[in-house]
Amino acid sequence: MAISISVVLLLAILAVIFLRNGGLKISHALVCLLLGFSLASTSVAPTIHSGLTATAEIVSGLRP
User: Fold this and answer.
1) Alpha-carbon dihedral angle through residues 47, 52, 57, 58, given to the nearest 10 degrees
2) Any residues with CB less than 8 A from the CB of 3 and at least 6 apart, and which?
3) 12 dihedral zone (left: phi>0; alpha: psi -120 to 50; beta)
4) pLDDT band at residue 1, thresholds of 50, 70 and 90?
5) How far apart, in whole angstroms, are the C-alpha atoms of residue 31 and residue 13?
6) Which tens digits make up the pLDDT trace of 7-48?
7) Nearest to residue 4, comparing CAs of 44, 35, 45, 43?
8) Does the reported pTM lie above 0.70?
9) pLDDT value, residue 54
10) Could you give phi then psi for residue 24, rounded to 5 degrees?
């Protein structure tokens, strides 16, 4: 759950930065949002979730 909130927060921050710099228009953001909700309701959602979880575990295991 904490990883999901972190990913959502990171993506929200990136979206705000892109909107402010003009690299992402409101219509593009809405399409991305709808795509995310669509993917969450498909059979691909568990695969995406496990991929994000595995990536987060690998990154958290790295030592500088």
Assistant:
1) 100
2) 52, 53, 56
3) alpha
4) very low
5) 17
6) 667 777 877 888 788 887 888 888 788 777 877 888 888 888
7) 45
8) no
9) 92
10) -135, 120
